[in-house]
Amino acid sequence: MSLISIKNVSKKFGKQTVLDNISLDFKDGNSIALIGPNGSGKTTLIKAILGLVLPDSGQILVKNQTISESPQYREIIGYMPQLSLFPQNMKVQELFALIENIRKEKPKNGYDVSLYQDFEIAKMRYKALGTLSGGMKQQVSAALAFYFSPEIIILDEPTAGLDPLSNEILKRKINTAQQDERLVLTTSHILSDLDEICSHVIYLMEGKVLFNKSIDEMRSQTKENRLNKMVAQLLNSKQHEQN
Amino acid sequence: MNKISFTIALDLLKNKAILIFGFILAFLGWGMFLLESQPEKTILALLQVTLIILPLVTGIFATVYYYNSREFIHLLLIQPIRRSSVIRGIFIGLAGGFVFSFLVGIGLPLLLFYPTLASLYLIIAGLLLCIIFTGIALWVSTHQQDKARSMGIILLFWVFFTFVYEGIQLLIMYQLAEYPIEQPMLWSVFFNPVSIARILVVMQTEAAALLGLSGAIFQDFFGSLKGSLIAIGVMVVWAVVPYFLSRFKFIKRDF
Asked: Taking CB atoms and an 8 Å limit, are B75 and A77 in contact across chains?
């Protein structure tokens, strides 16, 4: 089932085209790695799905509902931003309470506390978010993204600030989410981190989709095993095509 | 008011800045009545506080607040709630906080020490000014990325409304004294919420000299009661319009 479909979405910031007529389709049970150089539009695309950035043209549908119609679709999305955006003075406990309060309805299968427990969030319950280290904020952010058992999980550079142990915990969580037939969308520059967690790779460049392939497809095409080698080879062949 | 807006508003009220604001107002309000034996003089002093300090502080505080809660706003926008609920919550939280501080700090002593019609109008004018300048601050903040620039614009608004506007009015009156300018002068009052607030209160006191030329025309034209009602009506419009402009922008912009 297609959970998110993006239809001919374009977005300009001033004169700069950030998203150039992008059409994509994301299905449940997939774990998609969104990669590309800096400024290729990865974060803008994610923000467009979340409704933070409003596209100039085109449509985004989540579960066949146009997202501009109602904010309700965000109920099934968990989002971990690139930089954790938390109010400085709020305590960790208050943050969870506030979001629980705003979301009103409890998720069908109850709150997903596995990351909350693994990252030992309970220990920092009474600390203000402004006093947490960058990595700890990322942990809180990840725990919050999974907390409401969302069907769609969007992670923007999740591994940037995490220590190796937490990184492994998060990767394992992403793998289980994928096995539960949920959709995971991850952006990262560190391709080795994406190696074990993604089933599809989308490469964005200058606001366009350069390629969109499943890992198996890439493997048989390139005869390589490591993701970074596969991507490098595909990029090379693309360049040859252009020349 | 829906529950989400209320949750956001309550969360904003936890901030200490609004407490400090309340303390400053209470210090002025209660202190002046306790020091001064003639309440007629005190109300004029409090009128100056309300007309000059209140707009400045609400405007600046609201602007700082908006930019400092950018993370908070971001966090709210990725939840399944409407953008309009978010901006409404911010507006209600800020304006509510300022109005509450004003009522406790200045409204309460006015009612206790000098319960007259003039006091009542001063309270109405003050709480409307709180709402108006919160609205203007949000209107500026939602259009600007840069905090310092927003602060500058708010300061300009404040200087313009409290000092420059009436200077220009006076200048035009002197220059065009031979022409029938009463009507345009009357209309020009409506474009400055601080002027309206001043006229509204001064019409009820003995201090007619403070009315100014535009105020005198206003009173002459409308009379006391009708004039007061019209003044309050115009201030309500001023309280609503900037907020709706900011709401419109908030819904349309990227984050």
From this structure: no
